[in-house]
Amino acid sequence: MAMEYECIVGAAAASVAPVENDTDNKGLNDKLSSVTSLKESLGEFGFAKDENESIVSVTIVGASGDLAKKKIFPALFALYYEGCLPKNFTIYGYARSKMTDADLRNMVSKTLTCRIDKRENCNEKMDEFLKRCFYHSGQYDSQENFAALDKKLKEHEGGRISNRLYYLSIPPNIFIDAVKCASLSASSGNGWTRVIVEKPFGRDSESSAALTKSLKQYLTEDQIFRIDHYLGKELVENLSVLRFSNLIFEPLWTRQYIRNVQLIFSEDFGTEGRGGYFDNYGIIRDIMQNHLLQILALFAMETPVSLDAEDIRNEKVKVLRSMRPIRLEDVVIGQYKSHTRGGVTYPAYTDDKTVPNDSLTPTFAAAALFIDNARWDGVPFLMKAGKALHNKGAEIRVQFRHVPGNLYNRNIGTDLDRATNELVIRVQPDEAIYLKINNKVPGLGMRLDRSKLNLHYAARYSTEIPDAYERLLLDAIEGERRLFIRSDELDAAWSLFTPVLKELEEKKIIPEYYPYGSRGPVGAHYLAARYNVRWGDLGVDIDQ
Ligand SMILES: NC(=O)c1ccc[n+]([C@@H]2O[C@H](COP(=O)([O-])OP(=O)(O)OC[C@H]3O[C@@H](n4cnc5c(N)ncnc54)[C@H](OP(=O)(O)O)[C@@H]3O)[C@@H](O)[C@H]2O)c1
């Protein structure tokens, strides 16, 4: 049976007084000023006036930005549409841009969509949602401006238990200012205050530790929700279900049966004018150190004691801490160059005006990683991530070993590697899980071919897959931390990648140039070949 997107929990949780340890934040939780004068405004929003009820206020800091428009407001609307938000909620946009509530609503309305076209009452729902959206203009480093926000939030809260969620959708250099001001001037006085922090969480071990240290001056670890939106993707969530609830997978999940695991991310476009941010990070920090490594940890972890956040995160940290330091020779970097195809010229990375002409920043990287524990000893985990490649997608490929003494080797031909099983978990787009098997071609002869047992989500499930941000926002509201990154996980992830990143930069390693729209640098093939691996995504068999 299809798992339903479960929102009953959300609605129920909203009416429970959320007294938990993240209420003891270091901000001004003790300053709860009078709210009686504010009650008149409540009728307009249709809120119940029972002061024992709770209310959730979501403040998007950096609401005028790209991420807020593209992802956060639409995700909140989708949650509202599905009935997943608590009964009492308010959404505030906060940024420096001068806007009125009406301006914000107008801006937000342009990016809201009803999941399935022409769904019932969509416009009505949008109007109701937009009525709950407000805007407050302020500086990110002004306690005074945040205190003014606090005042407005209290008007909506009307003396109820106030739970406040801040979403930092701003550049990382202003995280600390915003956290300081929100914490000191606009924390909840009687409920929880949580902060969702977007990547990047630093650019190496030192800067990440400094960021964590600064955040913890104002917040406890329980209040910090470090978001990695890949963890909110349906098929990444499904990894554990697949493995721990199906007898046929878990016993095979070891070095004994698995030859290699591939984690592949590709985009078919370049930086397209947004290279300024990217150039300071590069593809390893942008995709590998976080998204792909998180997937790897989930994939490779031991069975957790339970599905509780801490039990899962404990197992993930163990994987990260068991990983062998990455050697420079196990990393290949590339950068896309201009390419003309069909009369169209595609730009080089350094043609982007926001990128320095002599930039060595990798837009592609491939790496071989190893987990030195009993389960995975010797199994290469190959990662590959790149921009401006021939296709776009994210997938996990598990290549199994040969069948020992295979009776059918004669029928398979000389390339035995092509006859091994491969499990592919296509995270995006067009979600699917398929297993490549050998099969007899029907007929009187004995000819084998490669076939797929295919779970194609679009064909199997009629429910639309929620966006990762929806799941993660809902989890943050409910205090579910399973899909957020704990500080020790982050430290372990940076410890793994920082030395090789430093080496690449100090030695000014020149990336291998690959044409825009190609399959990436040839070096990635040599790297894989060194470990007897063939990239599964580049095969010419039945994948496409
Ligand atoms: N866009 C994405 O798809 C995406 C994906 C993953 C992660 N992220 C991360 O999410 C965060 C927000 O992304 P975004 O694309 O929405 O960023 P953005 O549009 O560049 O910035 C968001 C808002 O922050 C304010 N801002 C921008 N630069 C500033 C500066 N130098 N000083 C002070 N305020 C500044 C602006 O608002 P005002 O001028 O109105 O104050 C802007 O509207 C970033 O940390 C980014 O790395 C983004």
TrEMBL record:
GO cellular component terms, semicolon-separated: chloroplast stroma
Pathway(s) served: Carbohydrate degradation; pentose phosphate pathway; D-ribulose 5-phosphate from D-glucose 6-phosphate (oxidative stage): step 1/3
Sequence ranges assigned to domain Glucose-6-phosphate dehydrogenase NAD-binding in this UniProt record: 60-238
UniProt xrefs under InterPro entries: G6P_DH (IPR001282), G6P_DH_AS (IPR019796), G6P_DH_C (IPR022675), G6P_DH_NAD-bd (IPR022674), NAD(P)-bd_dom_sf (IPR036291)
Domain of life (superkingdom): Eukaryota
Principal EC category: oxidoreductase
HAMAP family: G6PD
Function, in words: Catalyzes the rate-limiting step of the oxidative pentose-phosphate pathway, which represents a route for the dissimilation of carbohydrates besides glycolysis.
The family this protein is said to belong to: Belongs to the glucose-6-phosphate dehydrogenase family.
Protein name per Swiss-Prot or TrEMBL: Glucose-6-phosphate 1-dehydrogenase
Organism: Lupinus angustifolius
